[in-house]
Amino acid sequence: MRHLRITYNSPAVLTFSLLCFIATILGVMTDGSITRQVFMTYHSPLSDPMTWPRFFTHVLGHASWEHLLGNISYILLLGPMLEEKYGSRSIILAILVTALVTGVINYVFFPTIALCGASGVVFAFILLASFTSFRDGSIPLTFVLVSIIFIGQQVYDGIFLQDNISNMAHIAGGVIGGGLGFALNKNR
Predict the structure, then answer these.
(1) In sequence order, what are the beta bridge partners of 125?
(2) 53 in a domain, yes or no?
(3) Residue 6 lies inside a defined structural domain of this protein
(4) Which end of the chain, N or C, is surrounded by fewer C-beta atoms within 10 Å?
C-alpha cells in the first residue's frame, strides 16, 4: 500500500488562511488591540503610516472565531479549485485587489465604520467560481444566477437590515470576482 502524504496543494489559499488564523490568534491574545491597530481599516489620517498597510491587512483580521471560521470555510472550499484553474498569482491578485478596493471604499464612503475580515474575498471567490465553465462568447448562466442571488441579497440586506456586516465589502468583492472571471477567461 502506498504511503499517503499531506500536500500543500494550494499555496496561495493555504498561506492566506494561515495568515488569517495567526491574525485572529493575535487579536484574541491582545483583546482586539492588534486587530484594531493592524488588521482593521478605518478613517485614520493619511499621514498615519499604518493607514496604508491596513488597506490590505484588514482582510486578515476577524472579530471572532465564528467570523474567521465562516469566511475561511468558504475560502478553503472554493480557493483550491480556483487556484488550480487560474494559478496562484491570479488568486493572490484577487485577494490583494479585493482588499485594496474594499479598504479604500470603506475609508472614503464609510468614515465612521471600521472594516475587518475576508468576506469580500469570499464573495470574489464565489463569483469567480461561477466562471469555471466559461467559454468565449458566452456568459455562464451560473454566473448570472449567482450574481442575482448573492449580490441581490447583499443589496437587500444593506437596505433593510441594520447589522454589523459590511454588505459593501460583499458587493465589491463580488464585482471584483466577476470582473476577474471575465478577464481571466477572456485571455484563455
Answers:
(1) none
(2) yes
(3) no
(4) N
**In a domain? residue 4:** no
Helix 65-86 vs helix 11-29: angle between axes, to the nearest 10 degrees?
160
CATH number of the domain bearing residue 32 = 1.20.1540.10
| CA separation for the pair 50, 148 (Å, rounded) | 36
pLDDT in tens, 81-134: 999 999 999 999 999 999 999 999 999 988 899 999 999 999 999 989 887 766
Identify whether the C-beta of residue 115 lies closer than 8 Å to the C-beta of residue 58: yes
Query: pLDDT per residue over 131-180, tens digit each?
Result: 776 666 677 787 788 778 877 887 777 666 665 557 778 888 988 998 89
| Phi, psi at 48, each rounded to 5° | -70, 120
Residue 5 belongs to a domain = no
Q: Is the dihedral of CA 118, 119, 120, 125 positive or negative?
A: positive
What domain range is 99 assigned to?
A: 11-186
